């Protein structure tokens, strides 16, 4: 029986992928690389520094560790300028209704995101108060598909992995949830290894 629900952030509760895309595209342009939606797909659920390394690789550009840090920080400043304009109406359909329902029905709720900006985004959209536990890019060292982020969320909720359900939109995240021994509902198509696939959180209560 499920007792805890763990949400990924980007692509599940809010659509920040469009902002990541614009900011990475700007950086890629400076590197002389034409970054498209196809490459952006491959960055979903991937940490900031691992995303940068993929882009440098596609662009065929070598960079020192300090140059990488500078580029990642620059991308993040552009990303934050875009996030700054976010409001509660940019929450993905069905998110608020499901969060309300879960709290009303006694479920424990956690965030399990790769994003270091997760607390800021949850504040800006007014969703932070629904969460009993936040695990994000600031508190884990191993990127999805490593299960660390979800195992830490379960531990902080004081629940066993087998009573936790994860909502994920990225293959790396689905793999991480599976490796953690949790049930997983995938958002979107083309995800392997889910218990169920839906196209949006709107479908959960309907
Ligand atoms: P940040 P999620 C992930 O969020 C995004 O999908 C991914 O594109 C991004 O690179 C990563 O967070 C790190 O984000 O630069 O804000 O630390 O899907 O795990 O909620
Ligand atoms: Mg995601």
TrEMBL record:
Coiled coil: none annotated. Its cofactor is Mg(2+). GO terms for molecular function: beta-phosphoglucomutase activity. It is an enzyme of class 5 (isomerase). The keyword Metal-binding applies. Keywords: Carbohydrate metabolism, Isomerase, Magnesium, Metal-binding, Phosphoprotein. Its EC number is 5.4.2.6. It catalyses: beta-D-glucose 1-phosphate = beta-D-glucose 6-phosphate. The keyword Transmembrane helix does not apply. SUPFAM superfamilies: HAD-like. NCBIfam families: bPGM, HAD-SF-IA-v3, PGMB-YQAB-SF. Belongs to the HAD-like hydrolase superfamily. CbbY/CbbZ/Gph/YieH family. This is Beta-phosphoglucomutase. It comes from Sphingobacterium kitahiroshimense.
